[in-house]
Amino acid sequence: MPEAKIAPSMLSSDFAQLGAEAQRVVKHGADWLHLDVMDGHFVPNMTMGAPVISCLRKHTQAFFDCHMMVSAPEKWVDDFAKAGCELYCFHLEATQDPLALVDQIHAKGMKAGVAIKPKTTVDQLEAFEGLAEKADMILVMTVEPGFGGQKFMAECMPKVKALRAKYPHKDIEVDGGLALDTIDAAADAGANVIVAGTSVFKAEKPDEVIRTFREKVNK
Ligand code: DX5
Ligand code: ZN
Questions:
Q1: Helices 18-27 and 50-57 meet at what angle, rounded to 10?
Q2: CA torsion, ordered 88, 89, 93, 98, to nearest 10 deg
């Protein structure tokens, strides 16, 4: 299994201080920054787009893991590449031709991720032959996308387990409700990229939370 990457979700940060908030979690040991992009259409909430990400780029060299909770994700590939995003993760449910989209993302020099919502199955992902192999990362959502601070859905862990068994060397990310009382379930199932909003940004000691997550995944 690839090594742990802890990706604090900036959704739980103070958006008016995005640069300082990013630097704060990087100082506390974050490997990646998870940037939640919502369009008010694919999910019932709105956050940020490429202009904000390109401003943030000037404040940190951290790896940008962009989670695109948008309809028609193929529309924004160029803009996000220009904004300085390293990984463009789109939702399987939002596009007709995910294989072509992975190619489009790679052509712009970004890594490609495919996200699945809680009700989307591994079979639905694998119905697109070669997609899981081609993608650099698979994101198994552990809450319904749209908001931070929701309860972790342990019932999604069999999907993580099945994907880890099939793809031992791939980055498998979990997102939603990850905290000190849920990390064991995710780590045991085989997730190695851990997104955490509330549990990192609202922690008294974010460095300890990040370190614990990393130890649990790498154990
Ligand atoms: C939810 C987002 C998550 C969210 C996680 O749609 O994709 O990244 O910020 O927040 P927590 O860790 O608070 O559940
Ligand atoms: Zn996310």
A1: 60
A2: 60
Q: Which residues contact 132 (CB under 8 A, 6 or more apart)?
A: 114, 125, 126, 138, 163, 166, 167, 170
CA of 160 from ligand 1 middle (Å) equals: 17
Which residues have CB less than 5 Å away from ligand 2 (the ion)? 36, 67, 175
**End-to-end Cα distance, the chain:** 11
* Average pLDDT of the segment spanning 130-144: 98
Give me the amino acid identity at 152. Answer: F
User: Tokens standing for 107?
Assistant: 């052509």
> What are the extents of the domains in the chain?
5-218
SS (H, E, C) 163-195: HHHHCCCCEEEEECCCCCCCHHHHHHHCCCEEE
- Tell me which CATH code domain 5-218 carries: 3.20.20.70
Nearest ligand by distance to the CA of 197: 1
The ipTM, to two decimals, is: 0.99
pTM attached to this predicted model = 0.98
CA distances from 114 to 25, 56, 60, 76, 172 (A): 25, 24, 25, 15, 10
Cβ–Cβ under 8 Å, residues 10 and 22: yes
Q: Which amino acid is at 45?
A: N
